[in-house]
Each structure stands twice: as C-alpha cells, then as structure tokens.
C-alpha cells in the first residue's frame, strides 16, 4: 500500500555526482521518521526532494497524499501541505516575528490580516514566544528563532513537516527548547521527517529510524531495534562512532 | 580687468537668473522623468536577465552591456539626428529622455541584480517551501531586503543621470546649461555659466554626501 509520502526509485545527480541512488520509501500518515547517517550521505538532499527544493530525475516518483511532486501548478499545492524547518532558520529579517508567521497564510491562503495575526499569536503561545511577537528575528536567540521558524511552518497547517538538522546550528543550551517543541508536535498526528544527529531524540520520539549512507537507505527500523540490534555492519559502525563520545 | 567682475558679475547674474531658473526647471523635469523611467526599465530588465527563458536572458544581457558601453552623447545624437532618416522625429526632450532612460535602465538592471544576488539562497528556499509563488517571493521577501542594499548605488546612478542631462543642450534643449550659454552670449560675460555650475552643485553635492552617509551606515549594519 502506498504511504502518505511515497518515494519510488529516487535518483538525484549533481552533475556527474550520483547523490541519491534509487531510494524507495513509504511513510505513513502521522508517522515520525528520523533520518540519520554520516555527513554527505544524502539526508538533506532526500528531504529537499520531498517538496522539490531539489529537482530529481524524471524516472523518479514522489507523491504526497497522492499528489505527484512535479513542477507546475501542483507544486504549490504540495508545498502548502508540506512545511519545512531549516538548519539555519531562514527567517525573513525585514519582517517582525508575527509578520514572518502571517506572510504565507496571507499570501497563499488569502487569510485576512486580523485572522492571520490572531493565528500567529496562538502559534507563538504554543512555542513559548508570545512575548516576542513584535520583535525582529535578529533580536532573538538561535533557539527562539528556530521556534519561530517552526511556528511559521505550522501557520500553513501542514500535513507534513520536514526538519533538516533543526538543532545543529544552535548553542548546546538551546537544543533542548527546540526538541521539546518538536516532541510536542510529534504527539499531534502530523507526519514528520526529521534529519538529525540527536540520537536521544530519535530513540524517544521516532516511530522509525532510517540510516543512510552513500546516497542509499541502508537500514530502516523502529528505534528500539535500530539502536539495540542494528542488522547492517555500516549501521553498527555509524552508531559506534556517534554514540561513543 | 577685475576677475570678480568677470566671473561673478552680480548684475549679469541677476539679469540672467530667470533664464537659468527656466533651464533648471527643465533639467529637473528631464532628470526626474529619466530616473523614474530608468528604474522601471531596469527592474524589468533585471527580472528578464535573471528569470526569463534562456534566449531572452541572453538578449537582455546584450542590451545591458551595449547600453553601458555606448557613450551617452553618441546615443543621444543617433536618436536625435539619425532616427529622422528612418522617419522617427523626436523632440529634444523626448530624445534626451529616451537616451538617458535606455542607459540608466541598463545600469539600474545591474544594480538590482547585485541586490537580489546578495540575498542568501535560504530566503528563496524558505519562501518556496511556504508555497509562495515567484512573484510573491520577489515582492514580499527578496526585493524589500534588496532595496536597502541598492539605495546607495541607485542614488549614485541618479546623480549621474542628472549630470548627464546637460548633454541635452547639444540637441538644442533649453536646459540649465543651454540657458546659461545663451545668457553668456547675450551678456558677453561668463557669469551665467558660473551661476549654472553653482546651481548644479547646490543640487548634486548634498546627494553625493548623502550617498557616502548611507554607505557608511549600511557598512556599519553589516559589522
Ligand atoms: N548543490 C550541490 N552541488 C554539488 N554537490 C552537492 C550539492 N549539494 C549536495 N551535494 C553533494 O551531495 C552529497 C549529499 O549531500 P547532502 O547535503 O544531502 O548530505 P547530508 O547527508 O545532508 O550531509 P550533512 O550531514 O553534512 O548535512 C554530498 O556529497 C554533497 O557534497
Ligand atoms: Mg545535510
């Protein structure tokens, strides 16, 4: 049965370089999937293909809720359903925190100003930043900025949330506040694909952990099995390296 | 002969002042019209240069490079003196405005492009991931950030346009410089020319200083 996100035979080339080598992946509605693997293994490339921030070869197929992720008018539909949170936040520096959150609902969904503002304030409440609505992003700490970025993605009420190492650019003392917000989100039934180096988070929150290496999915298992009894040697080596320090 | 009497003859200056004012008014009209038209043309060219289909991009690039290379005076003379041979006869004002706009648009396009290309890729990606279309990404996310950066170079370009309006006197447009040379001929005294130079300076020097200040402020913001 095809998943809510269905990835079939996904190939991605950067010029001569074969970055994704035939990925097949089905993700169920409401599932929380953590993607781990060494640097350069293709984790970012994989999730950026899901909303087609990266182009991929024509013989590959990705569907989200049955809609093919192809260039053209469908793409806006898919992107409105798929939120993304980046490692470097990518907040809009010329807009206040509230305006950052309001922009997409206003422009894409044509929500009225008052309604969008009220929604932004509810979302800020939810990520613990109600007091910062009128500030500009540059006045916030990294952890606060990333929580605003999550609120901004949530404003489109997406069915899917993609995270690309959301805590890797943060000072250690701010990682927890962002992971807490993500942990709460995982309870809400939204489908999440999280690229992360936070093994603790993957173990506690994921329904499934995927290990990538060299542009391929090497292993895919529930966290319990993944961390205590990995089948593949490459997975064991990776876990050894990241858990042993 | 007294130098002051020759170059700053107050009586001659007072007599030619109305003529200079009339010239100044035309100079400002020509400058403002060309700057505005150049901004619109430049933004359009920039969008084509960056986002149009490949052949259009190449044509736009050729346009931009040609009009940044051609001497403005040559272009102006072609527009005013050569085009009538193919049946296109433009007034001095329209000829001058056309030439100034075509060149200013080419420079403006490059200024906008540098402003857009200075915006980090993540801003485009964040907008795309939210479902914003290309046009919305430009108007709501990219251009508001670029504008800040391009204000100093755009002001610089505007100063150049106003300075270059003086070339219009070549095609017999009665701008500030033309009025001054005529007043000089009438009075047999160069004071009106000095008067015109002072008027140009009074308008442009503050703008030059403003650009320096804006640039300093932007650079401070970066640090
Ligand atoms: N724009 C690009 N042009 C060329 N090669 C690229 C480009 N983007 C990524 N790559 C290459 O593709 C491979 C996969 O990159 P990707 O960013 O997906 O890795 P990753 O698993 O996310 O790594 P990291 O943990 O460092 O973020 C890498 O070898 C990288 O060098
Ligand atoms: Mg990555």
From TrEMBL, chain A:
Membrane topology note: Peripheral membrane protein
InterPro entries named in the record: AAA+_ATPase (IPR003593), ABC_ATPase_HisP-typ (IPR030679), ABC_transporter-like_ATP-bd (IPR003439), ABC_transporter-like_CS (IPR017871), MetN_ABC_transporter-like (IPR050086), P-loop_NTPase (IPR027417)
Keywords in alphabetical order: Amino-acid transport, ATP-binding, Cell membrane, Membrane, Nucleotide-binding, Transport
Subcellular location: Cell membrane
Molecular-function GO term, any one: ATP binding
PROSITE patterns with a match to the protein in the record: ABC_TRANSPORTER_1 (PS00211), ABC_TRANSPORTER_2 (PS50893)
Positions of the ABC transporter domain: 5-239
Entry GO CC: plasma membrane
SUPFAM superfamilies to which the protein is assigned, alphabetical: P-loop containing nucleoside triphosphate hydrolases
Family: Belongs to the ABC transporter superfamily.
Record-given protein name: Amino acid ABC transporter ATP-binding protein
Organism of derivation: Mangrovicoccus algicola
Automatic annotation (TrEMBL), chain B:
Organism from which the protein derives: Mangrovicoccus algicola
SUPFAM superfamilies given in the database record: MetI-like
Alphabetical list of NCBIfam families matching this protein: HEQRo_perm_3TM (TIGR01726)
Organism phylogeny: Bacteria, Pseudomonadati, Pseudomonadota, Alphaproteobacteria, Rhodobacterales
Localization in the cell: Cell inner membrane; Cell membrane
Keywords in alphabetical order: Amino-acid transport, Cell membrane, Membrane, Transmembrane, Transmembrane helix, Transport
Oligomer and partners: The complex is composed of two ATP-binding proteins (GltL), two transmembrane proteins (GltJ and GltK) and a solute-binding protein (GltI).
Descriptive protein name: Glutamate/aspartate import permease protein GltK
Any Pfam family hit: BPD_transp_1
């Amino acid at each position: 049965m095809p998943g809510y996100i269905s990835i079939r035979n996904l190939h991605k080339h950067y010029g001569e370089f074969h970055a994704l080598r035939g990925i097949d992946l089905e993700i169920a509605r409401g599932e929380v999937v953590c993607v781990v693997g060494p640097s350069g293994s293709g984790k970012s490339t994989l999730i950026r293909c899901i909303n087609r921030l990266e182009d991929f070869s024509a013989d590959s197929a990705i569907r989200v809720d049955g809609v093919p992720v192809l260039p053209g008018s469908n793409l806006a539909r898919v992107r409105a359903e798929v939120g993304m949170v980046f490692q470097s936040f990518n907040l809009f520096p010329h807009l206040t925190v509230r305006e950052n959150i309001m922009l997409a609902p206003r422009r894409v969904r044509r929500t009225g100003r008052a309604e969008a503002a009220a929604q932004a304030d509810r979302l800020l409440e939810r990520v613990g930043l109600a007091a910062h609505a009128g500030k500009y992003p540059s006045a916030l700490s990294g952890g606060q900025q990333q929580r605003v970025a999550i609120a901004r993605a949530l404003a489109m009420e997406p069915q899917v949330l993609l995270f690309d190492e959301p805590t890797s650019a943060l000072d250690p003392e701010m990682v927890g506040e962002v992971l807490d917000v993500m942990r709460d989100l995982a309870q809400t039934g939204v489908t999440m694909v999280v690229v992360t180096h936070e093994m603790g988070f993957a173990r506690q929150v994921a329904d499934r952990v995927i290990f990538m290496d060299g542009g391929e999915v090497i292993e895919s298992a529930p966290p319990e099995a993944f961390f205590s009894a990995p089948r593949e040697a490459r997975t064991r080596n990776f876990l050894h390296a990241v858990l042993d320090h | 002969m007294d130098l002051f009497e020759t170059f700053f003859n107050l009586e001659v200056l007072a007599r030619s002042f109305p003529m200079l004012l009339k010239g100044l008014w035309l100079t400002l009209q020509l400058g403002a019209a060309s700057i505005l038209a150049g901004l619109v043309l430049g933004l359009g060219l920039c969008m084509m240069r960056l986002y149009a289909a490949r052949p259009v991009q190449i044509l736009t690039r050729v346009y931009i490079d040609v009009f940044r290379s051609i001497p403005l005076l040559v272009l102006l003379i072609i527009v005013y003196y050569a085009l009538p041979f193919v049946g296109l006869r433009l007034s001095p004002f329209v000829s001058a405005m056309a030439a100034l706009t075509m060149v200013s648009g080419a420079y403006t396009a490059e200024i906008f492009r540098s402003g857009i290309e200075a915006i980090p890729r993540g801003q485009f990606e964040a907008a795309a991931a939210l479902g914003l279309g290309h046009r919305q990404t430009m108007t709501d996310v990219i251009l508001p950030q670029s504008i800040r950066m391009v204000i100093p170079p755009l002001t610089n370009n505007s100063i150049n346009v106003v300075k270059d309006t003086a070339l219009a006197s070549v095609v017999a447009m009665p701008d500030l410089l033309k009025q001054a040379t005529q007043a000089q001929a009438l009075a047999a005294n160069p004071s009106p020319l000095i008067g015109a130079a002072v008027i140009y300076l009074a308008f442009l020097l503050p703008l030059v200083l403003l650009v320096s200040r804006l640039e300093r402020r932007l650079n401070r913001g970066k640090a």
